[in-house]
Every structure is written in structure tokens, then in C-alpha cells.
């Protein structure tokens, strides 16, 4: 088999020189470090099912300003480490007394990770095409491990999302997705992205999302469209209940023995 | 509470609960039970019920606890007030503080702490119902919760106790054996058999300890098997699910390795993209393909030849670049970059 689900400590290969990300070498053999899917094409690597985002160089991420110091904006990155954006990395020349006029606490920004030091000091930059302060739209959070699924192969999923919802979409590597468009469209898109996250294991997802977002023939009356959307939403949430909440419900029941969870 | 039984082992060699001396209690495991935790596990072992949750890696406060070169693993063992017949006082006690410390250290050799300098990985093990051997049950649950949280680990940790009743060594003590037995020896070990926790209550001879460790090793092997089964069954073994996890993986491989511009990698990804195209177009056949791996592979290779140009086009649009374009486009910059076809389409949609 070329790829399969592996668990930490599982023997992957006996060729130690082929060790890739998510693996470690002991006694000349490669073992998995993570719970995820192993890929044996080329170098042996493991991509985890879950896990926190860890900043790495050149990633585009969506961050939030949590503090402004005389020369840096401090950003919350959705990882265990805060990021620093120096004034000189802002596209325009900004006087340090005026930093808050450009970005203040609570603002969300698209930035690129400039560098990550050994001690995990994260330096950010906005001197890149695509970096900007997000003044409108919404931000949705998904699991960082699901980001590749939201982007799709060669961006196929993102382009469907954009095309079918008439929204602007930007997917940050840290699992934050910025969307902008009409409220109706954004609601639909949010549901679609939730669908991608919860059903990322179902085949033909790209088509399914496309059909969902279209919600019937193009150019229908908005009221019709809304109705359709509602139906779809109900369908999706039902499925969700079956798959993901089944397990958490058991504990809930154990803990409180309350029939509310079964609604 | 029951009084001390006259005999722990009957004439047939069976214990009070009908087990043989080298048998562990039945264990059931459920993973991912807490939606707010990064990883979680609910474990029942005999009458023990334990819930483990893992948060992190996350920022560590107070900062003075931070370690510059590695993450801190904080393990908290706690017994719920209702976990035993006589309500126990909630909050940390002398006993639970000690168990927290040694249990946390049981994960020392497996957790790759150096990946997250300055961060903390919080492990909470809550005993909901106690019936002897809660620290071992908590360690078994915590291992799975750590794995569920996606924490890099060199392997699993299992834990199991050995004790002495009626002058005989027995595996995995139950409540009466623990209360009235002669000794209790909880042990945790890694898959390599490296012992990471060893405590003892009561008296054992050196020979008995050596023999006890061997018994615990056998018990831990059974627990590893249970843990592995739980992990491998969580995502099901259906081909479809595997296939799509793979798809996810390929997207990530494509994204991360784009920038290295490695020719070999390119061809690899091309074939993967081809596989995915096939996946989308021939959804029905995919399952069969997977089942017949060899045939599927051959098929894919053929496809690579045909679709390589197309795939390369797709691939050429490095995903991060794609994202930049998203940004510029949304700012009203209509000068479309590499991915002409797609963005044109988008423009068209908008104009309509």
C-alpha cells in the first residue's frame, strides 16, 4: 500500500535516508511521530489528522492585533506563539506615534511570516503582495489540518467557493478564512465551509459543495434560494449530529443524564 | 465497603471477579469525546471510568515556567468527588499531586517536547469512577488523548499494575485485592518496554518484582493492542475515507513542496493530481481501484502520461501564489495573474 493511516511509533520503513516530515529515525528504521496518513511516495512522511498551527516561513496567515508597542504590532497568530510586525514591515512609512491609526488592537490582518527563530520568535511582514488590513467581511476558523482540503487540488475548492458564492475568499494557513460579500452569500459560504470541515472525508466533496452553493438553477428569486439553502442547512446539521456528536453525547449523557442532548 | 474476603483466589485459580491471575479487566476506549479539547479520550477499565483531555501546545503563563528549548508537559490527575463511595474532598490532595507528577513523567521519553519551545501541553485526567488502578487507567487514557491532539510522539505509553494476594502475583488489581492485598506495583512503559513509571505499595521480594515486571509487560502489550485498535478504527477502515485523507495529504504536499521546485517532487505531485482527477471523474470506480491497489496504481501511471500537461498546469499555480491573487483581486486589481482561466471565469460570474 502506498499510503495508510498510521499511529505514533509505527514502523514505516527500513531506509533511514528516506525519512521526511512527521517521522523519526531509530536504529536505522523510520517510525511515525504522528497520528495521520503516511505517504510513501518519495520520502516517507506523515500528515497529521489534527494539531495546532505552527508558524513557518513564507506562510500567509490571518492574525489579530493584540498589542501595539512603540515599534511593533503584536499579533495573535492562532498558534502557541505570538507574532511581531515591526513598523518597517508595514507597506507605508509609519511614524511610531501614529501606529494605532493604521492598525489598532482587534484588527485582523493578512500577513506573511517573514521568519521564525529557533526560540519561536515569529516575525511577520506586510511588504508582500496580498497583505492587507481586513476592514470588512467575516473570518471563519477551521482546523489548520483541514486547510488543504478547503483550498483543494490546485485551488479547485477555493475557486468553486468564490465562483458559486460571489464572495471574496482568502484562506490563511493558520486555519482562518476571510470571506467578503453580501450577507446572504456569506451565510451560505459559511455553511459550505463548515460542510467541508465536517465532511472532509467524503468523496466528490468539491462537486457537492458546488451543488450546495448553487442551491438550484442560477438567477432564481432570492427567496427561493433562501428556502433551498435552509433545507440544505437542515440536512447538513442532521448529518453532523449523526457523525460528530454521537461520541460527545455519550459523555454528556454520562455526566448529566439529561435528555437535552438528544434533541 | 466489603470486608476482607477469606480467599482471593479460589481452588480453580480464578479471582473474585472470575479472572485468571494474568488477565486484565475488560477495557473500552472512545476517542475525541470532548469537542472543545484539542484531544480527548474516555476510557473504561473494569469499573474505572476515566476522562482525559489534552490542550495545546499553547502559550504558557506564567512566563517564568516557560522552557526556552522545549515544551512543558503539565499533567493533572484528579478524582471527582463522586468517584468513590465516600465523597472525597475536591481539589488537589497529597496523593493526587504525587500521582500527577509521576504520571506526567511517564510521558517524558515519548512526547517530542523540543518541537514546541516555550509552549505548554496540558493533560487533564479526571477519574469519574474509581475502582483500583485509576492512575494506570488515567495514563492509558492520556496517551490516546495526546495522540488525538496531534502531539508528535515516539510511541504510545501503556500502564498496568501487578499485585500480590494470597501470596501469589496477580495482574491488574481490582478493588478488594487493592484494599486487602499484600502489595500493589503500578508500572507504565513505552512500546519498547522502557519503564517510565514504577511505584510500589506493600512488600515484594526482589524475585517477585522481577516476575511482576514481566507480568506487567504482558499486560501492557494487551493494552497497546487495545489502544492501537481504537486509533485505527476512529477514522474507520473504509477505503473511501482513507482515499480522501490521502487527497488532503496530497494537497498539503503540493503546497509545502512547491517552493522547493524539486523536479522529482513535481512529477510525483503530477501523478497525484492525476489520481485526484480520476477520483473526481470516476468516483464510482475509485473504491474498486483502492481495493485492487496494484491495478489502481497501474491505471494511475497510465493516466499520468495523458494528463501530465493538464496536471502540470494545475500544479504550476502554486497554491500560495493563488492566495496572493485572491488578495489582490479582492482589492479590485483586475490584472489577472497566472491562473487566467479560473480568474476569468470568476470575473465573468461577477459581471453577470
Automatic annotation (TrEMBL), chain A:
Occurrences of domain S1 motif (ranges): 51-127
One MF annotation (Gene Ontology) recorded for this entry: poly(A) binding
One GO biological process term: poly(A)-dependent snoRNA 3'-end processing
> Which UniProt keywords are listed?
Cytoplasm, Exosome, RNA-binding
| An annotated GO cellular component | cytoplasm
Subunit structure of this entry? Component of the archaeal exosome complex. Forms a trimer of Rrp4 and/or Csl4 subunits. The trimer associates with an hexameric ring-like arrangement composed of 3 Rrp41-Rrp42 heterodimers.
Q: What is this protein called?
A: Exosome complex component Rrp4
**Which gene is annotated as encoding this protein in its UniProt record?**
rrp4
UniProtKB/TrEMBL annotation, chain B:
UniProt GO cellular component terms: cytoplasmic exosome (RNase complex)
What EC number(s) does the entry state? 3.1.13.-
Q: Name one GO molecular function term.
A: RNA binding
Biological processes per GO annotation: nuclear-transcribed mRNA catabolic process; rRNA catabolic process; rRNA processing
**Which CDD domains has this protein been placed in?**
RNase_PH_archRRP41
Subcellular location, record wording: Cytoplasm
- Family of this protein: Belongs to the RNase PH family. Rrp41 subfamily.
Q: What HAMAP family does the database record attribute to this sequence?
A: Exosome_Rrp41
NCBIfam families given for it? ECX1
User: Subunit notes for this chain?
Assistant: Component of the archaeal exosome complex. Forms a hexameric ring-like arrangement composed of 3 Rrp41-Rrp42 heterodimers. The hexameric ring associates with a trimer of Rrp4 and/or Csl4 subunits.
Q: What is this protein called?
A: Exosome complex component Rrp41
Q: Which organism is it from?
A: Methanococcoides seepicolus
* Gene name of this polypeptide: rrp41
